[in-house]
Design brief:
This protein folds into two domains: about 140 residues, Aspartate Aminotransferase, domain 1, CATH 3.90.1150.10; about 250 residues, Aspartate Aminotransferase, domain 2 (3-Layer(aba) Sandwich), CATH 3.40.640.10. It is built from 15 helices and 17 strands. The chain has a seven-stranded mixed beta sheet, with helices on both faces. The protein has a four-stranded antiparallel beta sheet with strand order 13-14-17-16, covered by helices on one side. A two-stranded antiparallel sheet has the order 1-2. The structure holds pyridoxal-5'-phosphate. Pyridoxal-5'-phosphate (PLP) binds next to helix 5. Pyridoxal-5'-phosphate binds next to helix 5.
Amino acid sequence: MNARIAESFYDVARVRADFPILSTSVRGKRLAFLDTAASAQRPLAVIEAVDCYERTSHANVHRGVYQLSQKATDAFEGARERVRRFLNASSLKEVVFTRGTTESINLVAQSWGQRLGPGDEILITWMEHHANIVPWQMLCQRTGATLKVAPIDRRGELDLATFKALLSNRTKLVAFTQVSNALGTVLPIKDMIAAARAAGALVLIDGAQAVAHQRVDVQALDCDFYAFSSHKLYGPTGIGVLWARESVLREMPPWQGGGDMILTVSFSGTTYNDLPYRFEAGTPNISGAVGLAAAIDYLDALGIERAHAHEQRLLKRATAALKAIDGLQIIGEANEKSGVISFVLDGVHPHDLGTILDDEGVAVRTGHHCAMPVMDFFDVPATARASFGCYSDDADIDQLVRALGRAREVFG
Ligand SMILES: Cc1ncc(COP(=O)(O)O)c(C=O)c1O
């Protein structure tokens, strides 16, 4: 869809009315919620779906023959089917529910990663979230494999040539984010996947910052693993997804043992359940899955492309407005960006800045954004980060700019 046409139909006031929290106030001020990259707010449709499940359908899943348990199982498995369609996965067996992106990546590191040994390499990029760094460091410590890191440049873009040069037949897995949470950079994942495939490596994509802003088709992407969290997608916390290619998942050993992931258990040995249950030990987050399905329905009805076009317009406007502020430096100026702006203000520590903005009702994230290597690269201890979602509007930007003016006054 043409971005301009898509955006012209976008009624942000109506969208905002779907999110009850946006009409609350903070310290007597209008709430300008600009921390969607950390966790998105929930629309009424999600809140009500979870509420309805809790009131009418809750029981444990996959276990009871009684009607309520079957109802809960239908809701849970219905949510899996909703995720399958959302990602255009070819089979339900490929959709594993986890606690979120972090757990999805740890699952791959602990299960698939067992096959690695000395001489094997994993390639990541310099702009990964800690969730896509630390599990691989731990895996390398356990197995003797080596972690390689593709560099970035001062604009916050990946050095694609060096990324490709770091690939070899030793590379067993390439794991990268689709969108940087700290910089907003949209990575050239098509080229990266093609290069990784040519080197014979598997590909894991951290989709945490992407799924709510662009349509994802795991078959078209031709990756092997795709991880995301529901709470970045307007759904509940504590639930997320690991999508994995069935042929890859089938060869992976279970990573956590317990109920639901087994077929038979005896003291002489245990046999494991079929996919995807083999990777879902214990009672799952059933209401979370119901909420995630409702969030996907909501975003689909809204139109992910239309929301994206709206966010891109806000990004442009906010970037121009922030650049006009004396002493403000934007960290991360990639050509293609998602609705994320990291910045520092001369002479003001980001944490102090965050406190002043909060006084003005503006919620932004301050800190290292779980991307300390990015902070090191830009030689800053932390940044302030404003990020947009489908409900963000021009008034949020105006309020942010006014609050930054106030911070300038306070700190001189
Ligand atoms: C790019 C990226 N990857 C991974 C994560 C971790 O997500 P979660 O904490 O939901 O597991 C985040 C969260 O901010 C993120 O932005």
